[in-house]
Amino acid sequence: MSRTEIPLIEVSSPDPRERGRQYGEAARAQIGLSIAYYREGFARTAGLSWDAVLERVPRWNALVEEYLPGIVDEVRGIAEGAGVRTEEILALNGRGELSFSDPFGEEECSSYALLPEATGDGHVYCGQNWDWRADTLDTVVMLRIEQPPAPTIVMQTEAGQVGRQGANSAGIGLNANGLGARFGTGLGIPQPYIRRKILDSPGLDDALHAVFSSRQSLCTNLLVTHRDGYAVDLETTPGRHGWLYPEDGMIVHANHFQSVVPEQLEETYRPFSPDSLYRVPRIERVLRRARDAATPGAVRATIAEALGDHFGYPNSVCNHPDERAHPLDRTTTVASSIVDLTTGEYWMAFGPPCENDYELLPWRLYGSDGASDERSPSTAPAVA
């Protein structure tokens, strides 16, 4: 599949189960590919048969329904629309939490936020390179969820998952990176539900409350940006959370703790992705030039240059499969995003950005008054 042919899926209903059915039906083929990939992956890496996985996942139902009411009905609807078992959709949403030793490692992503003081056009931008398993490329979809009275969401995700990274019509952007470590015991809320609750939020206070009210079982970085010129980076863990604010209007994060290493890990901590240590400064050095870019097109071109960096190739900002790794473990940039939270424009490159142009999605986050969601066809040129 060409990356420019990424499925654009729209669902619209106030009823969670109906939204799920629409999603599952539209993404039926991609959900089947995702189930096939994780079935093989868990067997090889974690020694878990698919039957064993499906036997475990219902344990999450009560926990996630209490945290995010209605979401289990949406999961059931996805399964109905895709013609698969509900437990299989639960498994796709819990791929990182299904064992205490994560069988799939972590997403090696690079995220950024730029506030008005860091951009020549005075806009707010956020986005990331989403680096994940190369074999999941054809499971990635762009999803637009209209769910009154909650905000409308635009996000990229693996088919069947209810949350990943994106932005909403309330002007909130979410980007995320794995931190590799886990500690503690007990059942935690899988990340897709936490991320969905953030994107469901009508205000920043609600988005932050979604993070701090969750009980999780692994460590993940969450970068939350608001169109009014605010961003905070949250290094979340099963214990305490750390946070970082932008410096000179810019913040960049990858896959290592940058605020403080949790005390549970400090004696033995090693970044699971050593290239994270050079990806952050490599992106920063280019993004500093965004304040000299006078137009949105020039700012996007600067961001695109930063996200296309090949220092340390193939384990670079623009990530490519490392032939030394097992085929199931090879990663690549599956999607790269530039979201203008000021205008509501959402630009995506599907696959490594060095090989694919950024294209403007046919969905705007806001209406002409900046408050409501609308759909608008793209006539803008790609960023080369």
General description of the model:
The two termini are 21 Å apart. This protein has helices at 16-26, 28-46, 50-56, 61-67, 71-82, 86-93, 191-199, 204-212, 276-287, 296-307; strands at residues 8-12, 110-114, 125-133, 140-146, 153-158, 165-168, 172-178, 220-226, 230-236, 242-244, 250-253, 331-340, 345-350, 359-360, 363-364, 374-375. The protein is an alpha+beta fold. The radius of gyration is 19 Å and the shape is globular. The protein folds into 2 domains: 12-93, no CATH class; 110-375, 4-Layer Sandwich (Penicillin V Acylase, Chain A), CATH 3.60.60.10.
Shape category: globular
Overall domain count? 2
CATH superfamily of the largest domain: Penicillin V Acylase, Chain A
Overall radius of gyration: 19 Å
Could you spell the SSE succession in H and E letters? EHHHHHHEEEEEEHHEEEEHHEEEEE
Q: What's the CATH architecture of the largest domain?
A: 4-Layer Sandwich
Poorly predicted sequence stretches spanning 5 or more consecutive residues: 374-384
Tell me the distance between the termini.
21 Å
**Main sheet?**
8 strands, mixed
Extended strand count? 16
The CATH class name of the largest domain reads: Alpha Beta
Protein structure class? alpha+beta
Number of helices: 10
| Integer average pLDDT | 91
**Going across the major beta sheet, what is the strand order?**
1-4-5-6-7-8-9-10
Strand content: 15-25%
Summarize the structure in short.
The chain is an alpha+beta fold and 384 residues long. It is built from 10 helices and 16 strands.
List the helices and strands and how they pair.
Blueprint lengths: L7 E5 L3 H11 L1 H19 L3 H7 L4 H7 L3 H12 L3 H8 L16 E5 L10 E9 L6 E7 L6 E6 L6 E4 L3 E7 L12 H9 L4 H9 L7 E7 L3 E7 L5 E3 L5 E4 L22 H12 L8 H12 L23 E10 L4 E6 L8 E2 L2 E2 L9 E2 L9
Parallel strand pairs: 1-4
Antiparallel strand pairs: 2-3, 2-11, 3-12, 4-5, 5-6, 6-7, 7-8, 8-9, 9-10, 12-13, 13-14, 15-16
